[in-house]
Model the fold of this input.
Amino acid sequence: MARAGLTADRLAAAAAELADEVGFENVSLSALARHFGVRDASLYSHVKNLQDLRTRVALLAGGEMIDRIAAAVAGRAGKDALAAFADAYREYALEHPGRYAATQIRVDQAVVADSPAMRRTAEITYGVLRAYGLEEPDLTDAVRLLRSTFHGYCALESTSAFGAPRDVRESWDRAIDALHVALANWPRGGHHRPLPQVPR
Done:
């Protein structure tokens, strides 16, 4: 018997919880139906398919993550804002691995454009980087640098892949220092500089 009050938002919230428990890739409509004690078919009144559910989880998680980041960077600028952004990002990724994995999936651009959370994410991220005097196309390049650095580090840390005795938090802080230096000394213009000629 279907539970009363089942909605798309409630399904997404339950799927997000399940993702943290079993991994985002293991979230399925069948698992969610079992959680609510209903048949799979009952869910299709609220979500179109698994991709729709995953997108909803991605938007939910993205909203949670940017709320945390926004609170961390409020009133900060430059390196302080960058470090606060990075720390909030890392904390969310490590505390909510399933939700975080959802934020990394590709979401249709039309959905992104209609999502207040996704727009807010772009505004805050680009705002932190504009404080370094960056403009397009350098802004997009810098966003990609930050995202790939943060994601790569968190992905490795979450699986205990760093084997050296050096404390991972110390390395993280140094990585943020290095990113600050890179952003403050960004090569302008979005074009590759010619490599110096090496004597043969």
About this structure: The chain has a mean pLDDT of 91. DSSP finds ten helices and no strands in the chain. Residues 112 and 182 are 29 Å apart (CA to CA). The radius of gyration is 20 Å.
